[in-house]
Amino acid sequence: MMLNPLIHIQRYHCLIALLAIGCLGCEPTQQEAEALFTYGATTLAMTTVADSLDVPWEICAGPGGQLWVAEQSGKISRIDPETGIQQELLSLKDVYRQRTGGLLGMTLHPDMDASPYVFIAYVAKNAADQPVSRIVRYTYAGDTLAAPLEILEYAAWNGHYGARLVIAPDGMLMVATGDGAQHGNAQDVLVPHGKILRYRIDGSVPADNPIPGSPVWAWGLRNPQGLAYAADGQLYSSGHGDAIADEVNKIIKGGNYGWPVVEGFVDTDEERAVARDSIIQEPLRAWTPTIGPAGLALYESDILPEFRHSILLTTLKGNGLHVLKLDADGSRIMADTILFQQLFGRLRSICVTPDGDIYIGTSNRDWNPNGFAEARDDRIIRLSKATAQQLRKQKATPAAIANQSDVVSRGELLYTDYCASCHQGNGRGVEGVFPPLNQAGPVAAADADALIRLVLEGRGEMPAFHFLEDKELAIILSYVRKRFGPQASRVSRAEVAARRPAPASRQ
Ligand code: HEC
User: Is 108 touching ligand 1 by the criterion CB < 6 Å?
Assistant: First the structure.
């Protein structure tokens, strides 16, 4: 990466001024941002801190403000985010990069002074020339990574490798693995595929895992590519669905997330039958059409208040950054806003550093044939709070495209407030008491007339909702038809208004 020579000159002038007058009023010089983006009341400065990388699959905040980067090609390096200077620490010799394989997730021990460990997940070939996934711990010493300790080696096939790693608040190593694209794996607790695994950092299995002697912590996952803790200690994961239902899940000990017998929410007869016999954890949110969710990070800093207590999720297919606003106890997603859509291409990795900056890594040189790698790809992009100087000098544009999925998010909130107490958040209702909304006649009907009348007028135990404004009803009913219809058309404000009784008949 080239440094702007101007910066040096400005720094030099600042130094002269500092020597001469103690730098009164001398602002610290700032590199001009590549672009400024507004998101709510926050203005973000965007800069490229490194370019010409080969899929930075993972970015971690390392000691001394350095970024640690794992590239899919097998290279692990340290990048100084101020200068862009990259120093290689290790180049894996045995990495097998084919389609989605290669060097994938990485995590650093949070106390690198006392425990200088780096954990990685990658695909290799074993002695019999078969693809395998490896979870390995390296020790960081003298600017290199040495003393590999293999924690796990398991069969790999042709895709769905996962894999993300994170150190838990209790010091354990958590690993998200893919199901290897083999149908039975995710529900089979005897294999490590399609799981969240939990190890001590020496690779041994803790005594308090749910299945004695097994690293398995949670199961039923298809291809998780995101894993991160919130400040309150809750673990979240993102994963790819098949044709439908990409997911973000809250991971609990012993949780079964359903794949392949349940996709997304429990909302078909087959899935309800499964859920009767075993407890299935439903996602916090599911996306159909799919978005290709990859890395996720929790934003807990006050530096960018708009992002506080949100899950930040990068998407491949979706080419964007989702901001998933959590409720106070982290068990519901209250809003979903997509930033930077189609701006940087496929987004794979994300890291929030202790100073509140956000780093995202592009994935435009991965195997995907629809990639559109540009000359500078792949890049690591920093999003930080714009300085006063940048705000004065540069124009900002909105980070979110107006009106995107706002209606759906609003709809979800209103549905939760007015309908979920009876029909349940997932629309399944309560057997024999409140009917399910999923595929219900008036919900899925081509014409929304019956649905609008029912909700305006009520029926039996179902209250009338004529007290809501036309706009609110239009948003709720559009949401209900989209989510539970799901091919049904939207409902407009005018359609609701037209079905209100005429003023005279109200008295
Ligand atoms: C207090 C509980 C309650 C609340 C709140 C409630 N409903 Fe209902 N809903 C019912 C009951 C009970 C029925 C069955 C009514 C009947 O046919 O006797 C019903 C029926 C329905 C049906 C018809 C289902 C079918 O199979 O035909 C739809 C659609 C519906 N409700 C939508 C909504 C929407 C949208 C909201 C929120 C604006 C809502 N309901 C809020 C209790 C409730």
Answer: no
CA of 158 to the centre of ligand 1 (A): 46
Mean pLDDT of all residues belonging to the chain: 89
Ligand 1: nearest atom to the Cα of 451? 29
The model carries a pTM of: 0.72
| CATH T-level topology, domain 406-502 | Cytochrome Bc1 Complex; Chain D, domain 2 (1.10.760)
Atom of ligand 1 nearest to the CA of 465: 38
Mean pLDDT of 89-107: 96
CA atoms within 13 A on the CB side of 46: 20
User: Is residue 27 very low, low, confident or very high in pLDDT (cuts 50, 70, 90)?
Assistant: very low
**DSSP tally for the chain: helices H, then strands E:** 10, 26
Taking Cα atoms as reference points, which of 316, 330, 184, 318 lies closest to residue 251?
330
For ligand 1, is residue 476 a contact (CB within 6 Å)? yes
Dihedral of the alpha carbons of 428, 434, 436, 441, in degrees to the nearest 10: -170
Separation in Å, CA 95 to CA 55, 132, 408? 14, 10, 42
Return the residue whose CA atom lies nearest to atom 28 of ligand 1: 437
Domain 35-398 architecture: 6 Propeller (2.120)
Q: Is the CB of 414 under 6 A from ligand 1?
A: no
Residue of the nearest CA to atom 32 in ligand 1?
455
Sequence spans of domains, the chain: 35-398, 406-502
Low-confidence winner among 184-198, 296-310, 371-385 (lowest mean pLDDT): 371-385
Reported as a single tens digit per residue, the pLDDT across 117-164 is: 999 999 999 999 999 999 999 999 989 999 999 999 999 998 999 999
320: DSSP letter: S
Question: Does any ligand 1 atom lie closer than 6 A to the CB of residue 434?
Answer: yes
Higher pLDDT, 251 or 507: 251
Residue of the CA atom closest to atom 9 of ligand 1 = 462
